[in-house]
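We modelled the chain as a single entity of 488 amino acids. Its sequence is:
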Amino acid sequence: MLKDWGRMEKPQEEELESRLKKARERLEKQQIIIKQKQLPVLVLLEGWGAAGKGSILGKIIKNIDPRFFKVAVMDAPTQEDKRKPFLYRHFIQIPEAGKFVFMDSGWLTDVTKERLKNDMSDKEYKKKIDSIKRFERQLTDNGYLVLKFFFHIDEKEQKKRLEKLLSDKNTKWRVSDYDLWQNKHYKKCLDVYEQYLCDTNQSSAPWYLIDAKDRKWAQLQILETLVQGIDTALMNSSLAVPLLQNAFPLKQIPKLSDISLDKTIADDEYEQLLEHYQSRLNELHNEIYRKKIPVIIAYEGWDAAGKGGNIKRITEALDPRGYEVHPIASPEPHEKARHYLWRFWNRLPKTGHVAIFDRTWYGRVMVERLEGFCSENDWQRAYVEINEFEKELADWGAVIIKFWVQIDKDTQLERFTERQNTPEKQWKITDEDWRNREKWDLYEQAVNEMLQKTNTSYAEWHVLESNDKKYARIKALKTVIEEIEKKL
């Protein structure tokens, strides 16, 4: 792309000024429409050191109400960042619906820097390219406008700019060691950038190469591309997104109706096994902390199935400094205004820690599907998106344990009735629980589809037969131990 790029001819000064004025005025009007139509816009600015990203960004945002945008400067990842998945620090920066986020550098810089330092194998490079393509596609599929700009200058121009910056004590701080190294190894960098741009140039999120030799001309290229992209996105906002076929290995799993729920455990055996497994899990918690292995335990199941008691028996075995339980309710307004997986990316554990989710990202294909909180196209697309999300976690090195807590309809009715008739338990039962019970058959159909389409080899579902809560608790502890030991 860079090597055979044909530059557009720069217009004469008078035409340039006229087009700049027109584009600025158009962007000023568009920001109101974006707010009304709830279009989120993510603009990624990448390119050579000293190519002028910062100064041109300053010109662009002058045309936007500061309440409608955020600038995210993506410096080198911190040690804390490195204890999270590769895309974590970028995903959490995505804009709310109706707003802009301008990212000064991003995932291109992260990948190419490692590549140039020879710290990344071909296999790891390909894995990260696949992650990036999925990330960008998920955003565009979920209604985001993603615009990626690469600021291009030649080797001589870069050297001239770096020397000018270094000659002034007030600007020399803007030149990093990496900028100087990049200019010294310009041809090597060019090869790596060329490969990356070709590998991540997608129809839904293409690269726009910016001739950055003249700053005013660069500003016009970006503004015109930006306003044109916004117009196109607004026109296409109501179009359904094509559904992708699942590309990940799936394992067979029985339907809920085929699972026997007569499994029980005697009280004395329960107490003995509880002590044994909690002691073993406590030992493993120390080991995963030492080896920096993250563990994610996800709970879904029927209301009153016993998720809370199950979670309690697991956390009793863990060091309280090394785990967090996330009870997931309806999304808050700022969460609802972003990609539905955003709030889960924000709750991922650090390496060596445990995150337990009481309800999860699977709400998309259950409650949101059945209650009409998202479109049919949204929830049908979500099976692949969820498999992709969990693949990111598995590639990061996480142990992923997913539980479906299963009971029958009669057992649920008994537990609902007991909660309603016991004053200290009445807070556990709501009108919504009773409404959901009326849709049992619809939910069972949705759950069966969810289990079939997301039971991957790297993130299996484990069904906990919970008519006997004590049996389910022991099975959960045993499963967590086995999955962690497998990883170790």
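As a brief sanity check on the tokenised model: The chain has two domains: 13-236, 256-487. The longest helix spans residues 13-37.
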